[in-house]
Amino acid sequence: MQPRTKGLVAAVTGAALGVTGLALVAMPAGADDAPNLPEISAQELVSSTLQADPPAFAGSVAVHNDLGLPSGVPGMDFADFDSARVFHDGDDGFRVSVQDGNAEYTLVANGDEAWAYNSSDNTATRFAAPDGDKTREQERAKGHHKGQRPEEMADPATAAQEIVQRLSETSTITVDGTARVADRAAYELVLTPKPSERTVLREVKVAIDSQTRLPLRLEVMANGTPEPIFSLGFDEFSVGEQPERLFDFTPPKGVKIEDATDKARERAEQAPAQGEKDAAERFGESLQVVGEGWDTVVTGAAGEELLSARPQMQDGERGMSERDKQSAKDLLERYGKRVSGEFGSGYVITTKAGSGLITDDGRFAVGAVPVQVLEQALTK
Amino acid sequence: MTIRDVTQAVPAPEGSGAGTRPAVARTRGLRKVYRSAVAVDGVDLEVPQGAVVGMLGPNGSGKTTTIRMLLGLVRPTEGEVELFGQPMPESAESTLPHVGALVEGPGFHPFLSGRDNLLRFAAAEPLLPSNKIGTAVADALELVGLSSAANRRYKGYSLGMKQRLGLAAALLVPRKLVVLDEPTNGLDPAGTREIRRIMAELHARGTTVLVSSHLLSEVEATCTHVIVLSKGTVVAQGELGELLEAGNPTLEVITPDAAQAVDALRANRIPARLAPDGVLVDLVASPAPQVIETLVQAGVSVHEARRKRTGLEDLFARLTESHEDEAPVDLELNEVEQAGVAS
Amino acid sequence: MTATTWEDAPAVTTRRHRAPLARLLSSELRWIFRRPRTLVVLALLAIFPVIIGISVQLGTDGQPETSGDAPLFVSAITNALALPLGSLMMLLGLFLPLAVAMAGADAIAGEQSVGALRGWLLAPVVRGRLLGVKVFGVAVVAVVSAGLVALTGLVTGLIINGTDGLFTLSGTELSLVDALGRIGLAVAWVALQLLAVGAVALAISTTTEHPMLVVAMVLGGLIVSQVLGLFDALSWLHPFLLPDPWVSALPDLLRDPIAYDTLGEGALRAVSYLVIALSLAYARIVTRDG
Predict the structure, then answer these.
(1) Nearest alpha-carbon partner for B333 in B236, B250, B269, B257
(2) Which of residues 106-125 of A touch C (CB under 8 A)?
(3) A205 domain-assigned
(4) B61 Cβ partners below 8 Å, 6+ apart?
(5) A312 assigned to some structural domain
(6) N or C end of chain B, less CB within 10 A?
């Protein structure tokens, strides 16, 4: 073979192989066709899900959110983690590792105790299962199946019927085909709001594994966008025995150890100022649920002073940015839209998943609904 | 007289000893085009075994390109190359181990010593057993007179030392063919003599040598065969002696009556020119006895008459310069004489 | 040139001769590790983890930083594992690729620039084999530079924290053997990434005779890739960028159990780059004029 031909063959073959490799990296797994699964009714599916006894598995969970929340608002990054890994031993043990940049937050639980370890400040927190051992012992003695639900849930078929019935009042429940989630065959259980419901949401989809009947993915769809605005689900899931050591935690030397129960006691002992206490109580009492089903709106009164209050520097916290020091009102002015009506006047923040309204006198309403529904709720 | 005539006057490759001695290297219809520039075109050459072949040509005449194709460094656009009867560059692994070459100047790393540089190339020599590398390198350094500077960094070498180290690399193992591209470039007279000595030694051992140069004195002094390249084509090749004889036969006549002699000859339509000690007579039209007879009849006293040897320099100068423009005749003659004195 | 050997020279036949491969490889390594520039870069790579270890220890008075986004080796104050891995992670950004880019540049363009490549081709070492020897040399530089960083990082970490301070980001204590295994894995992974960079350098190296041009192009390409990796709008492009997983993958070795996803993807990506670059380098070197 001539060197020119030889070189050309090598270049083309190598480049093709390499690009294929890169494409493999780029292609998300599980883009295959929907699997063929036997037909199943919504009620049967819910029932079998309730009955399911999760096997030992390992998986990783990813969150995608496209809620359209204004960026830069403190406290809005609740679902902002890279990924989480979940391990379950099929019994009482589980382990969740949430990856956040170079740090990791690990939660380990077995039947006896639970630990949380935070690598960024190198602290381990112990949660003792309060009297958990005893209850469990008693349950075991009574011959209860492990992980069984409360008494009223004892018969999954009845429970499923009840759940489906309750949901049917406001939603259409269907099994809408199948999907492949984390490379596993799953049924798609779809909840669609009845036409009478006033909501910005289009549907909620739950993918349920065809074998283990575990929910593998939750997707929330809103009007006007084909992609889910929020999805939480496994991108990897494999059933199988997990090494026992994963469900044990022994804090290494040099780690700060805290006890959650001690901490809670301390906090309780530090009696809050009377004013704060009252405000919190008032806030709790003011909470009200208006409407039901998809157009449920939560209203309440936060109190005028909360709007102008600036976040306090807490002990040991350093490096708060200027942004963090803004008052709620500053933020509303920046991200909210001024509205007024029968309810008074205030700011409204709209996202793909719903909206929130805060009046100038500190009342608020939140729901997965258009703004008009919020206004009505506050007018009532 | 044109270039074409000269080429015809030179015996063809078949006649230049190929019948008795097999060719070590041979090319046929060799052509190399770089982008649009033709570097070498239609080169047929032959390097007979045991010969010391000088490849002569001005800079840019295609010597280095031809050598690079001969050694398989460059693939010809057209034509064939054979080394030891095997096609190149396909047979590089069976032929090149027997070939030592110094092409386009020495290529060594400045941060390594001369010895370490040679050790590197020795490691790549297929015919050198691993346990003989050390002695081979020491012998090669000894041969080129670099033993005392062997442990100095190549960076500090003089131009001549660098050239000699390149020669040492070419002579690491016993070779059947040694190819030297402009080996005396940048060397002082002593260095040049040294290279000549080594080439003579190689020749004595029966090694075939191909050496390129743009200095004909060098080729004249050391070679048995000559190949003359000009503008990418072979304009002459053959044994040195034959090439020296070729060209216009001229009779040199020593006489005190030079002017009278020229007049007499021209009157008889015999071309003649003035020379310092007499006249030069072109023998193309008339044989030597007729010239002498004419002169004697005209009363010119002829002290001495001899057939003049056409120097390779004369040939070379005419071959190369005439392409560009016709050199003045007188100048050409002066060069011939100087060449005669030098050699 | 002793007369006897010269006259005993074997006759020319059609038999092909090749210098033993081991001899070529060891000669290549001797050449690489005698180059003063290479030694300086390796020395700097070796010193870096020591400087980081000491300065982190002094700068924080032995107290870990509590803010969330602290670099990995901030936890090196208490964790001997974090220093070698953190150093590898930080040096992978520029300095380690520089070392292999230089090796790749010198391997062919550098040889060509002094005319030594001709020596190889005339010996002869056939071109495919020559490329193989050069790839080997670059691979050794990749392994040695990654290994050196990990080694001095580990030793510094152990001196500062002792063998007690070996635990993962998940709060699991590791045995020394387990820790060494993870560091070994990190070195192998980093070396593979570096080899991919070196292969790209070799590919560029076959097209020029200016080694510094090769280094500039490789580092320029890396910097552009890293910048492109910062834009979320270009997320479709990210899987094709070699340095994309460089920051995120190594901490995964500090988790328990090790998360292999990003590491595996990064390895596949590096192998893809390697295959593309080496096939182009091969195509170029067999057709190039010597």
Answers:
(1) B250
(2) 106, 115, 117, 119-122, 124
(3) no
(4) B229, B230, B231, B232, B320
(5) yes
(6) N
Residues of chain B neighbouring C125 (CB-CB closer than 8 A): 124
Cis upstream peptide for B189 (omega within 30°)? no
Whether residue A81 is predicted with pLDDT greater than 70 in this model: the reply is no
Q: What is the pLDDT of residues C251-265, one digit of tens each?
A: 888 887 888 888 998
Rounded to two decimals, the pTM is 0.78
Q: What is the pLDDT of residues A304-323, one digit of tens each?
A: 666 665 555 444 444 444 44
Of residues B246, B241, B238, B229, the one with CA closest to residue B14:
B238
Please say if the pLDDT value at position A272 is more than 90. Answer: no
Has residue A280 been placed in a domain? Answer: yes
Q: Tell me which residue range forms the domain holding A300.
A: 272-379
Alpha carbon A297 to chain centroid, angstroms: 20
Written as one string, the DSSP assignment of C156-211 is: HHHHHHTGGG-B-TTS-B--HHHHHHHHHHHHHHHHHHHHHHHHHHHHHHTT-S-H
Query: Which secondary structure element, helix H or strand E, spans residue C148, and what is its range?
Result: helix C127-161
Which class in CATH covers the domain with range B3-245?
A: alpha beta
Which residues in A lie closer than 8 A to residue C69 (C-beta atoms)?
101-103
Residue carrying the six token digits 């049924």: A187
CB neighbour list of residue C76: distance below 8 Å, 6 or more residues apart: C52, C53, C56, C82, C83, C86, C157, C160, C161
Q: Which of C211, C19, C199 is nearest to C126 (CA)?
A: C19
For residues A351 and A98, give the distance between their C-alpha atoms in angstroms, rounded to a whole number.
Answer: 26
Look at the block and give the residue holding tokens 């690009």.
A19
Q: Which runs of consecutive H residues, i.e. helices, occur in C1-126? A: 3-7, 21-32, 36-59, 82-91, 95-105, 111-114, 116-122
CB contact under 8 A, A255 and C283: no
H/E element holding B163?
A: helix B159-170
- Please count the structural domains in chain A: 1
The answer to whether residue B143 neighbours chain C at the CB level (below 8 Å) is yes
Give the containing element (helix H, strand E) for A159.
Answer: helix A156-168
pLDDT band of residue A336 (cuts 50, 70, 90) is: confident
Chain C residues within 8 A of A237 when measuring between CB atoms: none
Using the CB atoms, write b or e for C137-170: b if 16+ within 10 Å.
Answer: bbbbbbbbbbbbbbbbbbbbbbebbeeebbbbbb
C218's CB contacts (< 8 A; 6+ apart) are: C97, C101, C104, C105, C197, C200, C201, C204
- Put simply, whether A301 touches C (Cβ < 8 Å) is no
A307 within a domain of the structure (yes/no): yes
A248–C contact, CB cutoff 8 A: no
* Sequence spans of domains, chain C: 20-287
Q: Rounded CA gap, C246 and C259, in Å?
A: 14
How far apart CA C290 and CA C288 sit, in angstroms, is 6
